[in-house]
Amino acid sequence: xxxxxxxxxxxxxxxxxxxxxxxxxxxxxxxxxxxxxxxxxxxxxxxxxxxxxxxxxxxxxxxxxxxxxxxxxxxxxxxxxxxxxxxxxxxxxxxxxxxxxxxxxxxxxxxxxxxxxxxxxxxxxxxxxxxxxxxxxxxxxxxxxxxxxxxxxxxxxxxxxxxxxxxxxxxxxxxxxxxxxxxxxxxxxxxxxxxxxxxxxxxxxxxxxxxxxxxxxxxxxxxxxxxxx
Amino acid sequence: xxxxxxxxxxxxxxxxxxxxxxxxxxxxxxxxxxxxxxxxxxxxxxxxxxxxxxxxxxxxxxxxxxxxxxxxxxxxxxxxxxxxxxxxxxxxxxxxxxxxxxxxxxxxxxxxxxxxxxxxxxxxxxxxxxxxxxxxxxxxxxxxxxxxxxxxxxxxxxxxxxxxxxxxxxxxxxxxxxxxxxxxxxxxxxxxxxxxxxxxxxxxxxxxxxxxxxxxxxxxxx
Lengths: 229, 222
What we know:
Chain A is α/β, with parallel strands linked by helices. Chain A has a domain at about 1-75 and about 195-229: P-loop containing nucleotide triphosphate hydrolases (Rossmann fold, 3-Layer(aba) Sandwich), CATH 3.40.50.300. Chain A contains eight helices and eleven strands. In chain A, the strands form two sheets. Chain A has a six-stranded mixed sheet, sandwiched between helices. The longest helix of chain A has 14 residues, at about 105-120. With about 220 residues, chain B is an all-alpha fold. Chain B has one domain (about 5-35, about 40-215): MetI-like (MetI-like fold, Orthogonal Bundle). Chain B is globular and about 65 Å long. At the A-B interface, β7 of A face α6 and α7 of B.
């Protein structure tokens, strides 16, 4: 049985996606408007689909047939998009601490430092989002999403607006982590760098799924063209 | 200058503002976050006092607060005196009359907060109360200040509702705007002028403070 089976209609667009999270990294690749971001929002619980079921690490997050729909905060899912969405009135450290209020003061402080260090952002702890660059904001957003130790991290083109150096540095730090990731991109070159199981999504349907080489090999020429340009 | 009337007016405006903030914040939060089919009705009800003639509102309040209704009798029993023609009754009337001046800026302020921030807060486990306290309110401070300033000045200047449900009892329900009316009736134009200037000053000062604060951190367009 697939881990994810969702059906959702939004105006003229219909999403019907079935897939498994077969490896630690799953990359959803497809053109703009294919429904990639909608899938992530459904997984996160920010959109209630018309019908479907989502199982994650032995837990059922959604089962419309049984009326099960865990709220976002109980799904153990972190979500980072291109827009860091940091709380502007809080410092970087306070942003990272937002989701771990249940920890003791010392444990919380330790976890915040650990998370910021993980993304090379420990020196930013006392700065507010307005004082951070785009890359620094993404580092803090990732630290915040990972602080509660989520089972799954959803990344919706989180590096799209960053320069190559920042993007590569953040990606290498992410790849070193022991967390299951679903990564969305429409950039074939970016997907190619990931050790991921790939799902190709077109017009709301999964048209191919499997190991990266196998799924994307037919598109290799297009990829090389993209890389050389 | 009748200091007793001035003090009563300021006390009424302050009490009304406090009650309206306590009521308006949860009501505005409910309006921006609910999917209930009742939302348009509640929004319309909370905006109605802007369009309704104050005498109409005052008339129905007078009936509601009087001894002919269950609410009026209950309030009278609990307070030990009838709500109509009392200071407490004036607060009730002023709260209803100025409700839109609290709810509208607060709703606009909450709506202006980026939805992505609310989503992140939800993903990080925040419930409705924490979203309101830790995200919406701190990011809507200007709207809260605007709501407070508008409620205060609107209450200071109200006439029709106050006259209908409070009458004109010195020390109990006579406010500055009613005092002006009385002074004009008595042809005491100089006195009416002084009281009017005071009301004008209070309203202008509140608005200047409000606009000074609003433009403090905003972008300049020229």
